């Protein structure tokens, strides 16, 4: 998106010259001759940068007075001060009050263009640094090679370059905020701010001040809508937004203007993305969510599948989290045994990807033999709730009394459990399982029938329906 620049100077020739110079560089330029015009233009356009003359004739405020107001209303906007009658004291005073730099008239065009470019780049880097500090430790891309995740990433790639609003649905911990950040990063607003409003954690009484800002006792507090100007605002868990606020944000989305609490109207150019883990149609039916807000936000709906729906992604995700945790904690990376992976794939994951990440961090730190990198994390090291639904082999331990069984029974016992684990590992896919265990598919079918492994046993993977023998065998 084009940067907007506001020029405040009482000389029409200077405004005309600067306008032409900066428009040739690809900027959108607005002008103001006095403080009243400057304040109105600043609040309407929310410029990326201001070029401000110190001495303004026929103006209620001079440049220093405007500088103080601008920095109060938007501390992040860079301001270049200009003057043809400047002194060292004046320049120092403006810099102390927050100006980015001081330019003397007559100015050199090349130097001014360079200062404008540098100021905008510095502002962008400050935003990026603040964003990096905010999202430290967060995943920044949706991982997984399953068909579901490939489809989600494809949808994100299509919608991101547009300015359309997106409603992202999915369970808690599924990656809705990660998807929103991906949309922002791939959009034309990627250099602008990404601001998050967590609707579930705010008290109803403070919601509007947080969102719209406030003006009290001569002090101005910018809200998140204003701070997201030229960027993206994420309304996280939007179903928790109070009904009264819902009505006000409908108006803000429609008019692209809003009022600070106790203050004047403010204009902001913001792309809004919303997330929800609830069924908003049910919330609308229960009169807890406004239908008009839903249709304004859900221009493009996007659903993030639960981890339970894509068990094939679990092994790679688990290993990735083990590696990243090892790096951040200074520990060695440990592998996962096959039976541990089978247990992870069989578990329901109500907390989705977030729960898997937390578990892998805990296992890396707290699992037995944590100091022994060569010792893999086995199924019997996992919490009981994770391993209890897996095939019995993944629950065996050193006390299992196989030595009391006859050889044939012990062998059948092992083969049954081994094949159950491998079938679960490959999502019930006969072809892939047969290839891994080095058997012909027909031989594997006969062996499963001999051991009494039923169709339910071999396809007992969360999110997948039981297959027929023919369909499972034909899957490659």
UniProtKB/TrEMBL annotation:
Show where the Response regulatory domain sits: 4-120
For this chain, one GO molecular function annotation is: ATP binding
Keywords per UniProt: Activator, ATP-binding, Nucleotide-binding, Phosphoprotein, Transcription, Transcription regulation, Two-component regulatory system
Q: Which residues form the Sigma-54 factor interaction domain?
A: 142-365
GO terms for biological process, alphabetical: phosphorelay signal transduction system; regulation of DNA-templated transcription
Any transmembrane segments, and where? Answer: none
Sequence segments annotated as region (Disordered): 454-476
Q: Which CDD domains does the entry link to? A: AAA, REC_NtrX-like
In Pfam terms, one family for this protein is HTH_8
Q: Which domain of life is it from?
A: Bacteria
List residues, modification 4-aspartylphosphate.
Answer: 53
Show the PROSITE patterns listed in the entry: RESPONSE_REGULATORY (PS50110), SIGMA54_INTERACT_3 (PS00688), SIGMA54_INTERACT_4 (PS50045)
| Keyword Transcription regulation (UniProt) | yes
Question: Which PANTHER family does this one have?
Answer: TRANSCRIPTIONAL REGULATOR (NTRC FAMILY) (PTHR32071:SF17), TRANSCRIPTIONAL REGULATORY PROTEIN (PTHR32071)
**Identification of the protein by name:** Sigma-54-dependent Fis family transcriptional regulator
Species assigned in the record: Formicincola oecophyllae
């Amino acid at each position: 998106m084009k940067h907007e620049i506001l020029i405040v100077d009482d000389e029409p020739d200077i405004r005309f010259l600067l306008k032409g110079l900066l428009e040739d560089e690809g900027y959108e330029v607005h002008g103001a001759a006095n403080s009243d015009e400057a304040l109105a233009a600043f609040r309407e356009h929310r410029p990326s940068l201001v070029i401000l003359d110190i001495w303004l004739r026929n103006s209620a405020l001079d440049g220093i007075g405007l500088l103080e107001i601008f920095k109060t209303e938007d501390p992040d906007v860079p301001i270049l001060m200009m003057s043809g009658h400047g002194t060292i004291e004046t320049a120092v005073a403006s810099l102390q009050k927050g100006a980015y730099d001081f330019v003397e008239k007559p100015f050199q065009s090349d130097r001014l263009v360079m200062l404008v470019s540098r100021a905008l780049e510095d502002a962008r880097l400050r935003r990026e640094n603040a964003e990096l500090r905010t999202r430290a430790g967060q995943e920044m891309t949706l991982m997984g090679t399953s068909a579901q995740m490939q489809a989600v990433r494809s949808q994100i790639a299509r919608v991101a370059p547009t300015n359309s609003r997106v409603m992202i649905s999915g369970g808690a911990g599924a990656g809705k905020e990660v998807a929103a950040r991906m949309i922002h990063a791939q959009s034309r607003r990627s250099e602008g701010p990404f601001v998050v409003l967590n609707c579930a954690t705010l008290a109803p009484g403070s919601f509007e001040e947080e969102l719209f800002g406030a003006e009290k006792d001569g002090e101005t507090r910018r809200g998140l809508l204003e701070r997201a100007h030229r960027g993206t605002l994420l309304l996280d868990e939007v179903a928790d937004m109070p009904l009264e606020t819902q009505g006000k944000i409908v108006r803000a989305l429609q008019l692209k203007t809003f009022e600070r609490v106790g203050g004047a109207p403010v204009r902001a150019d913001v792309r809004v993305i919303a997330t929800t883990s609830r069924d908003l149609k049910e919330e609308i039916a229960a009169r807890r969510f406004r239908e008009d807000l839903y249709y304004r936000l859900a221009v493009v709906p996007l659903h993030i599948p639960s981890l339970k729906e894509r068990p094939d992604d679990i092994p790679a995700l688990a290993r990735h989290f083990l590696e990243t945790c090892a790096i951040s904690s200074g520990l060695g990376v440990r592998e996962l045994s096959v039976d541990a992976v089978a247990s992870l794939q069989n578990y329901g994951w109500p907390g989705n990807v977030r729960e898997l990440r937390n578990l892998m961090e805990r296992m890396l730190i707290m699992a037995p033999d944590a100091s022994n990198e060569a010792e893999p994390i086995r199924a019997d090291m996992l919490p009981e709730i994770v391993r209890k639904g897996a095939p019995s082999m993944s629950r065996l331990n050193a006390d299992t009394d196989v030595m009391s069984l006859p050889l044939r029974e012990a062998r059948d016992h092992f083969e049954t459990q081994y094949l159950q684990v491998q079938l679960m590992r490959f999502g019930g896919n006969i072809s892939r399982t047969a290839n891994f265990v080095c058997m012909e598919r027909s031989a594997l079918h006969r062996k499963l029938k001999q051991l009494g492994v039923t169709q339910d046993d071999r396809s007992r993977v969360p999110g997948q329906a039981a297959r027929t023998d023919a369909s499972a065998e034909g899957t490659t």
